[in-house]
UniProtKB/TrEMBL annotation:
InterPro entries: Glyco_trans_1
One matching Pfam family: Glycos_transf_1
Gene3D superfamilies on file: Glycogen Phosphorylase B
Protein name stated in the entry: Glycosyltransferase family 4 protein
GO biological process: lipopolysaccharide biosynthetic process
Organism (species): Candidatus Dojkabacteria bacterium
Transmembrane segments: none
Top-rank lineage group of the source organism: Bacteria
The entry's keywords: Transferase
GO-annotated molecular function: glycosyltransferase activity
Domain (Glycosyl transferase family) ranges: 166-332
Keyword Transferase attached: yes
Length: 364
């Protein structure tokens, strides 16, 4: 049996890393290097830097022994890839779940494009991708971005949807009395929480519709101020909940908002993780209309699309589903079917395994 090493810049039990680890354990005897605790990451770059250095130091004895067939570097892996490649000729498989440059420079805009940090992040993405033998991505839209921005060959990349933990997220009996529209996020600009609360403002005339927004983050104070100043009594801003409580929140909602609703380019390249959780539970979901979401979902069949960054379009979508129970049920059934056929854990693991084994085949 093949021998592998798994390590990552984020915690090993981060959902994306957990999926990848489970997959490679099915085709190899795997040594896991990294932390299991969610306390590894509290936001920002420094925790990832610390974890990457710590993982690399733990890896050194294995690099000296060379007693493995390949290294799998999970999310966040660009820095680790750069650290490892000078010390091994063994194949490196990398999950490029996000681009450091895209996330920090183009989306969150923590620095300018001409800054030294920006240039370093661009170099980091480009160089790490060149050193990996196989790169896993979450959408074809992301693959196109990586190809156009960093010159990564499309043939080197393989799409693996995000998926979700099916032990937690599976169909549950619906709450027939609910009129709740649910959204949960970490208040990043691409999430478009401002669009959601403005849509809620447009729907104030219907006292039965309640919005429950769970989370905290960068834009929370701004959103809180808007809700208070405009006296939006139909909006509840709830504190974050643990992932094991999310299924109950989803169950108790009438309609789920899958996102993303923000205006950034990155918002159009990703399928939100929450969307997989919601459709795995067979709930009617409203999604931002973009290229990435259309890779998985179809308007009117398994979701309801609305124009991104458009509160009126979102309000109209919510009204349409609120008023049409038959449509909600049809979309909910389609959502569950799509998840089972295109994004189940079993399917995603098989894609990862087949991709790795194919990449490791002798050339020529």
């Amino acid at each position: 049996m093949l021998k592998s090493i798994f390590l990552a810049g984020r915690e090993v039990n981060y959902p994306r890393n957990a999926l990848m680890l489970s997959a490679i354990q099915g085709v190899s005897q795997t040594t896991v290097i990294g932390s299991q605790g969610s306390n590894v990451y509290k936001g920002g770059i420094r925790p990832i830097l610390r974890q990457s250095v710590r993982s690399f130091l733990q890896l050194i004895p294995r690099l000296i022994k060379r007693d493995f067939d390949f290294v799998f570097i999970g999310f966040f892996g660009q820095l680790l890839t750069q650290m490892i490649t000078p010390f091994t000729r063994k194949p490196i498989i990398m999950d490029m779940f996000v681009s450091a440059y895209d996330t920090l420079v183009e989306d969150r805009q923590i620095t300018t494009r001409k800054s030294l940090l920006s240039k370093f992040l661009f170099w980091l993405d480009k160089q790490s991708s060149q050193r990996a033998k196989l790169i896993l991505v979450d959408t074809l839209a992301h693959a196109e971005y990586f190809h156009e921005t960093f010159g990564i060959s499309l043939s080197k990349m393989k799409r693996v949807f995000v998926g979700c933990d099916e032990e937690l997220f599976h169909p549950l009996p619906e709450n027939p009395e609910s009129h709740t529209v649910l959204y949960y996020c970490s208040y990043l600009p691409l999430h478009g929480v401002d669009v959601v609360v403005q849509a809620a403002e447009l729907l104030q005339a219907d006292p039965t519709i309640k919005f429950r927004i769970i989370g905290e983050g960068i834009d929370y104070k701004k959103i809180q101020k808007y809700v208070q100043e405009n006296q939006l009594r139909n909006v509840e801003l709830a504190a974050p909940v643990s992932i094991d409580r999310l299924p109950k929140e989803i169950q108790n909602s009438l309609i789920c908002l899958g996102g993303h609703f923000g205006a950034s380019a990155k918002a159009c390249r990703v399928i939100p993780g929450k969307a997989f959780q919601m459709i795995a539970m067979g709930k009617p979901v409203i999604m931002g209309d973009n290229t990435a979401n259309r890779e998985l979902l179809t308007h009117g069949v398994d979701c309801w699309f609305c124009e991104m960054n458009n509160p009126r379009a979102l309000a109209d979508a919510i009204s349409t589903l609120i008023q049409d129970r038959e449509l909600r049920n049809r979309i909910a059934g389609g959502a569950l079917k799509t998840y089972q056929e295109a994004a189940s854990s079993k399917l995603l693991k098989s894609i990862v395994q087949e991709s790795i084994l194919d990449a490791l085949k002798p050339q020529g």
